[in-house]
Amino acid sequence: MVTRRGLLAGLLATGILPRLSWADAGNPAFLSAARRADGAHILAGISPTGDILFRLPLPGRGHAGAAHPTLPQALAFARRPGTFALVLNCVTGEQTARLDAPEGRHFYGHGAFSSDGSRLYTTENDYDAARGVIGIWDVAAGYRRIGEWDSHGIGPHELLRLPGSDTLVIANGGIETHPDSGRAKLNIPTMQPSLVYLSPEGALIDQLTLPPELHQNSIRHIAARADGTVAFAMQWQGSNTAHPPLLGLHRTGQPPQLLTAQDPDHRSLQGYAGSTAFSTDGTRVAITSPRGGLIQQFDTDGTFLSSLTAPDICGLGPGPDGFTATSGTGALYATQALTLMQQATHPLAWDNHLTPIPA
Amino acid sequence: MRALIFALALLPLPALAQSPVVTQAVEAHILPRMETLAATGTALANAAQADCHPTAPDLRAAFHAATDAWIAVSHLRFGPTEDQNRGFALAFWPDTRGLTPRNLTALIDAQDPAGRDPAAYAEVSIAARGFYALEFLLYDPEITATGNAAYRCALVQTVSGDIAATTAAIADDWQTRYAALLLTAGQNDLYRSEDEALRTLFSALSTGLEFTADTRLGRPLGSFDRPRPTRAEMRRAGRSLRNVALSLGSLQDLALILADDNTVLHDQLNAAFAATIARANTLDDPTFAGTADPQTRIRIEALQQRIADIRNLVAQDLGPSLGVAAGFNSMDGD
């Protein structure tokens, strides 16, 4: 049988290049890195119902992906402190480009495209200067590096483009690391995380820092709603006997709102939120904690809704009835109202994050 | 110790943890070391009062004894050391921006009154407190010659007094509060199961090994093209290698307790630690000055590799043996 994908691969081989779209890759809902049972690493495309649409080999452990807004191109970042990222054609499976971090830099594992897909932005560590950098890459020129901006903080981790705009929002985790010391944290007593908004020209629009008693709450992961509201998830680096909030909502120019479940549910997060997302309809926000094996849902007015258990759960994105989540045990979950349904399970360990594909 | 016995006597008997591993770790590993930390901290403050001159042999001996005691607990970074940032108030290292000498110089230049007052000193920059600040005050050629000698003397006494207060607070907190939380895991809000207590101890071992390999050795090693011997921990006091060997000895003690009755694993860990410590003791490079010399460097890298092997053994065998196997995401930490 001649499938569209097979036909396209054949056409590509002959040098005839039709304009490919995400439909040609089977309309995946998400990208996720994963480790196979044999220890090899892949980037997978996941359908809205939890099927795996494609599996692309990776040379080592991945972290997050980035999906081009129109072309079926996926960026696969190596796990921190990786110095390369691969551009993969999700229809043919070919690697079409490779990004190498400039000398003295490494990637943090997250990236985002401009709204027109012409640029890719990456979070990077200028490690001898202990300075966070946003790298800018020209997509049409085969992902050539064309510049960089200051991230206005140490340890920029996830970055996103606010929906319907080219404003970038950056989670500066605040933690200094240097590849000479692996992943060891070098500045916990003085760390200062922030949430930073940059204009399409790279100018600082707004900057959120939390009160001094929360300076050891590393802001790592973010999600954005259509109206520009940003959810930020945190990882507590302070004492294990303190239990500060691990989720916040923010809009530029306004004070943040911190969200916390009642105890014992809040303490069960073990001070660690791994991912955050808004529900498809935007009325709910959730965090996952692989350490606690939990997904917690909140109304965006701040009301705690539910805390549900799933071992090693971390990847999180919107779903048909709220949220989709993945775990290191291979499970794919869908929330239904306030419960968690196992949609599928694969012989894989899903890595930290689900990357939604633009519809 | 008396305080702990008193605290435990208040608890109903069934509340005591069933786990001999947790009990052994608390009573044979943690509490004696915390007691030594507080005792040597007090002795340090007394020595500084008796003679504050940076080259005074008794003061330097007291500095080394108290620092030894800190290194032996430096992997126990939870509870009493983390509350009120006490651990960082004793050990501001690594100091990637040179904040310790900068803050000390500013205090000395200004003859800041806080430098004469141990109570007020708890409010100065955390970078100017603790063992690493005292090392500068006793051994750094520039700091020991800057400003007014009488003020520097007072500052040595103040920093030592502040160390004594912090180490006493940590030991007291362990004895009167925190030991009981570990020992009654499953029956308090902090440790809601014995597994959580075991996970905390396991994590202290893993992160302690990581710190010694990646930070104590990794920072001076730098890269082959750019070795960084001046980043070695406490090189001014000649303690870089000593800290590595002492931390490994303490981590060995904890690892063997956690191996419990798994005799095969116990013997494997014991042998791996013994070989690694023996290698450290034959290195003959107390400050890792040899990271820039290819022949010495290869031997320091070999020591680091031995620690990496212990880390693998701990992650792959000890974790599952304790029932705290690492999840793909839960132990990734990113």
Architecture overview:
The complex is a heterodimer of chains A (359) and B (334). Chain A is mainly β and 359 residues long. Chain A has 1 helix and 29 strands. Chain A is 3% helix and 48% strand. In chain A, the strands form 7 sheets. In chain A, strands 1, 2, 3, 28 and 29 form a 5-stranded antiparallel beta sheet that branches. Chain A has a 4-stranded antiparallel beta sheet with strand order 4-5-6-7, with no helix packed on it. Chain A has a 4-stranded antiparallel beta sheet with strand order 8-9-10-11, with no helix packed on it. The longest helix of chain A has 11 residues, at 4-14. The two termini of chain A are 28 Å apart. The mean pLDDT of chain A is 94. Chain B contains 12 helices and no strands. The two termini of chain B are 39 Å apart. Chain B is mainly α and 334 residues long. The relative contact order of chain B is 0.12. Residues 1-15 of chain B have low confidence and may be disordered. The interface between A and B is large, with 46 and 35 residues.
Question: What features would you highlight for this structure?
Answer:
heterodimer, A: 359 residues, mainly beta, Methylamine Dehydrogenase, Chain H, 2 domains, 29 strands, 3% helix, globular, B: mainly alpha, 12 helices, disordered N terminus
Give, in order, the helices and strands of chain A: HEEEEEEEEEEEEEEEEEEEEEEEEEEEEE
Uncertain segments of chain A: none
Structural class of chain A: mainly beta
Instruction: Let me know the average pLDDT of chain A.
Output: 94
Could you describe the largest sheet of chain B, including whether it forms a barrel?
none
Shape of chain A: globular
